[in-house]
Amino acid sequence: MDFEQGFQEMHHGVIMVDVLGFLIACNKTARELLGINGNVIGEKAREILPDSAVLQVLETGEAILNEKVDIGGRILIFNHKPVFEGEKLSGVVTSFQDITDLDAVAQELEITKELNRELEAIFNSSYDEIYVTDGQGITLRVNKAGERLYGVKAEEIVGRHVSELEEQGLFTPSITPQVLKTRKRVTSVQNTKSGQKLIVTGNPVFDEKGEIIRIVTNSRDITELSNLRQRLEETEKLMDNYRSEIAKLRKERIHSIEIITNSTTMQHILDLAEKVAGVDSTVLIEGESGVGKGVIASKIHQMSRRNDKPFITINCGAIPENLIESELFGYEAGAFTGAKKDGKKGLLELANGGTVFLDEISELPLNLQVKLLHVIQERRMMRVGGSDYIEVNARIIAATNRNIQRLIKERKFREDLYYRLNVVPLIIPPLRHRKEDIPVLIDHFLQAFSDKYELYKKISSDTKELLVNYNWPGNVRELENLIERLVVTVDAHEILPVHLPDYILHADGSSEKVFVLDICSIKNATEELERQLLTKALARYRNTYRMAEALEVNQSTIVRKMHRYGILKDKGDNALLLNQSE
């Protein structure tokens, strides 16, 4: 084989260019890669390789290696080397090959590397530990969370068998042998050398032959959760104690309840309450907020045969919707996450033998209305998560401040439950419709709070008249709160109209009234009235023209009288009030 034949059969494409840039040699592989047909010897290199760096090598005399050029959709890599005769450049030898497939492989490899970096970042950023072993229990990988939980570096764990690490006390027990034995997912509680408590789940990974090739374990630190659970159990026990104490206090309070009334309407309601107290009929008490629905319910229980049994009050609007079912009906052990291990009695069960007062019954969710209806009808109930019925012997008294008939039309309250509750209806009128009760209630609350705080007060007849004429949107509760406020905050022995809040003084929409506190000369009274009016107007308007407009006098009169009573000290004050912006 001669040199020419070997040159033509080379695997790489090779071309030679003289010092003037003309092709002087080109092998067969070069023609195939460049798509050349016919003889190109003597052609200019720039026409055969327009994007090549051959001419740059001729100009600089320096080699250019690994030049990538896209020719016809194929990626070719060129190596250009100058040829010298002595010290004189005589031409360039260019060799090249097709790396299209290699380039694709390189790109895929780079993508794989990037994906691997991403997975590594995810692996190490997990808050929970990820622990990987092979099918024999040899540790392959541990993420950063594992280092935090065990207090050692990953390199100290990788390559070691889990049984060895367990013997060392790093964690106890190891879950990997259990997964290998059962060939199923296993969850257990694990303790670490540093005293932490972990919830651990091991998952087997199988190959196509059904053999375990990996075990992936996830661990979460539940030390704080375990502590919180223990505190919750202690809190639950404390709450049970509190409930018992509250029940005792409520029982004592019920026996001391005294309903103060002077109206025939309320007396009729009390007579009816006394009648229904002797039977176990369900009672529905309706009335505005603050009229005393809870007091009537307590009175019915006090006068009933159940008065030595529990009286349980449940405010259906105060308990969150996601808790009210378990509060009412209780739950079995393990009914949901965070449940007490022994389960818990519901309020209906705790009231067995006594009375349940369901305040704001209209706020009870529809799904629980069905369960309550079943309790009323069947006298039995089932705890959340339970399968057995529990007998419940409790009288039901319900109350609402809303229009249940309207709620039924709006499909927000079950009609069948309404008729079950409304066996004996008691409708308590608002305080504004029984004004004869207001004076006796005032006297009762005044005496009660005077004794409680040892601040003995009396109320003037004018003050009492204003209180009787007030509308009382908050009913008895509002009246009670106001009397307590007056007893505590009024310094004088007698509570006068001037001590009442503005919304009561001006409840009829009239202008402010003037109240005379004591006998004095008309001249002094007039001057005092003018001084107070000017002081109030000054505080409100800060401008003498606007003060004059409000008091319906001339501005000069305002200035003169303010100087007279010492409200304006000098002309500077007057100028300030004249220029005061609105």
Give the averaged pLDDT, no decimals.
84
Can you identify the CATH superfamily of the largest domain? P-loop containing nucleotide triphosphate hydrolases
Question: Which runs of at least 5 residues are low in confidence (pLDDT < 50)?
Answer: none
What's the β-strand tally? Answer: 22
Note the total helix count: 24
Features:
5-stranded antiparallel sheet; 24 helices; Beta-Lactamase; 582 residues; 20% strand; 5 domains; Rossmann fold; alpha+beta; 6-stranded antiparallel sheet
Question: How would you explain this protein's 3D organization?
Answer:
The chain has 582 residues and is of the alpha+beta class. The chain has 5 domains: 3-103, PAS domain (Beta-Lactamase); 126-221, Beta-Lactamase; 231-427, 3-Layer(aba) Sandwich (Rossmann fold); 432-505, Helicase, Ruva Protein, domain 3, CATH 1.10.8.60; 522-579. Strands 7-6-11-10-9-8 form a 6-stranded antiparallel β-sheet. A 5-stranded antiparallel β-sheet has the order 2-1-5-4-3, sandwiched between helices. A 5-stranded parallel β-sheet has the order 13-16-19-12-20. β9 and β10 (197-206) form a beta hairpin. α10 crosses α11 (293-303), α21 packs across α22 (544-551) and α22 crosses α23 (555-564). It is elongated, with a radius of gyration of 47 Å. 24% of the residues are buried. The mean pLDDT is 84.
